[in-house]
Amino acid sequence: MSAKPIPSKARAVIIGGGVSGCSVAYHLAKLGWTDVVLLERKQLTSGTTWHAAGLIGQLRASQNMTRLAKYSADLYTKLEAETGIGTGMRQCGSMTVALTEERREEIYRQASLARAFGVDVREITVEEVKGMYPHLNTADVKAAVHLPLDGQCDPANIAMALAKGARQNGATILENVKVTSVVTRDGRVTGVTCEQNGETFTIETENVVNAAGMWGRTLADMSGVTLPLHACEHFYIVTEPIPNLQRLPVLRVPDECTYYKEDAGKMLIGAFELKAKPWGMDGIREDFCFDQLPEDFDHFQPILENAINRMPMLETAGIHTFFNGPESFTPDDRYYLGEAPELKGYWVAAGYNSIGIVSSGGAGMALAQWMNDGEPPFDLWEVDIRRAQPFQKNRAYLKDRVSETLGLLYADHFPYRQMATARGVRRSPLHEHLKARGAVFGEVAGWERANWFAKEGQEQEYRYSWKRQNWFENQKEEHLAVRNGVGLFDMTSFGKIRVEGRDALAFLQRLCANQMDVAPGKIVYTQMLNDRGGIESDLTVTRLSETAFFLVVPGATLQRDLAWLRKHLADEFVVITDVTAAESVLCVMGPKARDLMQKVSPNDFSNAHHPFATAREIEIGMGLARAHRVTYVGELGWELYVSTEQTAHVFEALEAAGADVGLKLCGLHTLDSCRIEKAFRHFGHDITDEDHVLEAGLGFAVRTKKGEFAGRDAVLRKQEEGLKRRMLQFKLADPEPLLFHNEALVRDGKIVSTITSGNYGHFLGGAIGMGYVPCAGESEADVLGSSYEIEIAGVRVKAEASLAPMYDPKAERVRA
Ligand SMILES: NCCCC(=O)O
């Protein structure tokens, strides 16, 4: 293959010949991109793919990740017939056992989720476990689930079959060709330079795909692209053949960090230990090819001891292979897909966190469609490269973080679980103030944010559980303070963007669905839509002057929102600036917010002088702020935008004055519970690029009469066709169970979807959530006339449903 000439031009150049690159090549070729070139520095599969375990577990954390995994399983089943290469694909099923009560809750919740996603699953008894896995010590097994359609495969052959399928459809696959640079001009990819046998070549192309696995970060860095991933050592052993070993399903014992795979009469036992060993900090050897890393028996021994206890026959089985090989891990344990925000035409498919085989089939399909159509085939935000923060490519950060993320694959996935490593990189100027007042922090996009406040004498840390956690009562007090008095939130992590210039208004009118031509000082809640009417961004826009607008977006979506704005900038006089670091945000929320503001400021906060949805510059303490009268908790309140150097002063002024009105410091958990009571949507949970703005119930923020804007046609079409699904708010009848999100939503006895957001409504008195209900051709009365239940860990709980917010449906409190 390597003797083939290197083409001078291609529609896409894929860098990396592992299963990821081969899958992208296969799917692009299938879409008719016949002049695709894949370049592999050594031999196909020689990085990570060749030593992957090849487990095909179809249930993933979300509907669309499951959709991609199911696609992979289907594809791998068919590949052999298409290409003649045996893929070793075997539908042996899989079983997960729980050794603790917490894990039982987790796997039963997962089983409910699997049912909602259409994955075949069954909770099985310990006797059934024993029946399927006679060698297993089940003495301490508390519960188990079985997924009969899961499987296993031969990873290297899957990659080879994909490569052959790609070639059959016109792609060129070249080995022993090393990419030396990606050529760019005016912010877009124009080519690739590479070396073969000491000679340099250039391939002209407008699309590059970084599928370089553990080389991906360094390769991306060469082009100024952020791709935060790092290799870790992954260990497994393979036994000698075990006489009379029957065919077995894949087994996962997450409480012992292990998986078991039977293959050709031997057992493979792999580990996702809690503290992993990052590898390759100083780069990867130039001649690395099918390399293994040195054994570390001391590291693996505790795993092996547990495995022998779990499966006593291993004691005498004899170890044939002690394997250690590098795999790529990312800071949040999710892979990367999509176009890098820094460079047009630079695509990525990398960072698979040890689930590369099951993911790559679907991910390759999704990326190929994304490249072909200019938009993803469905919501892929959780793996979108635009979620990566520029600082995350820092190697010290990555090294610390990936030592944790490897183990997270099998760790307890408790709700609200926070990362324990690599913390504190982005902090509000109030961080130490809040910490001293009991704040317990969580992390989003690198930002430390106060999630809840411990009381004097209470431990200032999380105790995780599937039931009420140790902060439940703290949240209740904060929540009720916001409803009945006044609370203060530090929301400095908001992303802040200035859009300025002669054409700023026209630009935003074109991108936003609401009316942007408002008087200076007005604040508008709006969405940016794609051509399908799906929500690309959810934001508020404040008009600061004739030519300057101030956009506020969630901290987690800032890079995505900046990328969306920049991508749609035509030949216009507009400057887009990320000003997140310039201002802190203090939110004063609750019926007594006006009393508090009046104590710290001489300005007039009455409705007449400062009505809802307006911004005013105010004096506060001895400083200045811009007070935005908006709310994400459904109360009277102001978001105070304060320059960073005055933040501590303003906080101290508010705190001192707040003593008289019972001001309470509140955390993000309370922000969330209050906003769900008010049925305010959250991007990434309730609204995504796949959710039509009208079906999401946000038609009130769309102005079709203002003229053309992105997504307008899709809105008009939907108005004519009618809604196919609607977002409803739910409250459990029983005040005891909890909702987090992803619970199965049951309508008239049938699972129809999942809960998109959940929390506890401390004012309403029960767990609350939101979710979409299919409703094509139905009236509101039909939708509300149904009976609803929510399935939590296999148990169905009655739920009240509402189209209007259950809390303050007429928004009287907001405008009080
Ligand atoms: N590479 C191992 C995959 C582990 C799992 O699917 O559970």
From TrEMBL:
Residues 12-370 form the FAD dependent oxidoreductase domain. Its EC number is 1.5.3.19. Residues 725-808 form the Aminomethyltransferase C-terminal domain. It holds the Pfam family GCV_T_C. It is an enzyme of class 1 (oxidoreductase). InterPro entries: FAD-dep_OxRdtase, FAD/NAD-bd_sf, FAO_M, GcvT/YgfZ/DmdA, GcvT/YgfZ_C, GcvT_C, GCVT_N, TrmE/GcvT-like. Residues 430-706 form the GCVT N-terminal domain. Residues 373-428 form the FAD dependent oxidoreductase central domain. GO terms for molecular function: 4-methylaminobutyrate oxidase (demethylating) activity. Keywords: Oxidoreductase. The keyword Metal-binding does not apply. Belongs to the GcvT family. This is 4-methylaminobutanoate oxidase (Formaldehyde-forming). The lineage of its organism: Bacteria, Pseudomonadati, Pseudomonadota, Alphaproteobacteria, Hyphomicrobiales.
